[in-house]
Amino acid sequence: MTILDKIIERKKVEVAEAKKQVSLEELEQYPFFSRTCYSLRDSVLHPERTGIIAEFKRASPSKGLINSTSSVAEVVIGYQDAGASAVSVLTDSDFFKGSLADLRTAREVLTIPLLRKEFIVDTYQIAEAKAHGADIILLIAACLDSNEIQAYADYAKSLGLNVLLEVHNEEELQRSIFDSIDAIGVNNRNLKDFVVDLNHSYDLANTIPNRFIKVSESGISDPKTIKELKKAGFQGFLIGENFMKTGDPTKAIKEFVKEL
Ligand SMILES: O=P(O)(O)OC[C@@H](O)[C@@H](O)c1c[nH]c2ccccc12
């Protein structure tokens, strides 16, 4: 059993518990549920922003603890001030030490799009994302079949959310393309063995249709890489650990952006 299988198994239990605590009808009454989402496309393509989707990540299954001291509000404001196009907040608690409270905190202080970084295995989590302040949801092809991807993307769109589809290889890409998707992210990290290889992005760049925003995810630690990825056709860059592992993520992103 891979760690991804373990995460998914745990996620299903978690969702069943959450549904007992808060019904869908109750989520629909949360104040954030009726807000209008920011557009991921507009913010990624905005000439005064960098295309960076900067992630608040305390820990991960591959790296263990990354940063246990920085506060979510301070870090995400720093990311926004540095020119990030969007912010990603992990909401998984067991493997990434995140929470829905972190997501809400980020929403309260940000005026750029916010991604709920989560392993989505049920439409309930999409309603939950909206209710807790997300603008964007992530659908991970490695955890979902084609029918689920289409149904979840359609449902997210019906709530006004932006959809980022994550793929790792061509097989996942080819079975996952639907019109209700806004952006396609190539995860350079294999979620089954954690091996990171930027070539996944370079290999898939031209296979992703140009109507989608193209995002390269994971393992980016050098501003020069952004220049190369841009040449290859990418517009978005999801970066977490490189900023979070320093004691001061705000300072780290500001210095990174100076080199772009
Ligand atoms: O910390 P990194 O290597 O910069 O990676 C960020 C982000 O891409 C990574 O956290 C991620 C990409 N897809 C995921 C799916 C689930 C959890 C986490 C992720």
From TrEMBL:
UniProt cross-references to PROSITE patterns, sorted A to Z: IGPS
Catalytic EC class: lyase
Name of this protein: Indole-3-glycerol phosphate synthase
GO BP, one annotated term: L-tryptophan biosynthetic process
Family annotation (NCBIfam families): PRK00278.2-4
Family recorded in the similarity comment: Belongs to the TrpC family.
Alphabetized UniProt keyword annotations: Amino-acid biosynthesis, Aromatic amino acid biosynthesis, Decarboxylase, Lyase, Tryptophan biosynthesis
Organism of this sequence: Sphingobacterium gobiense
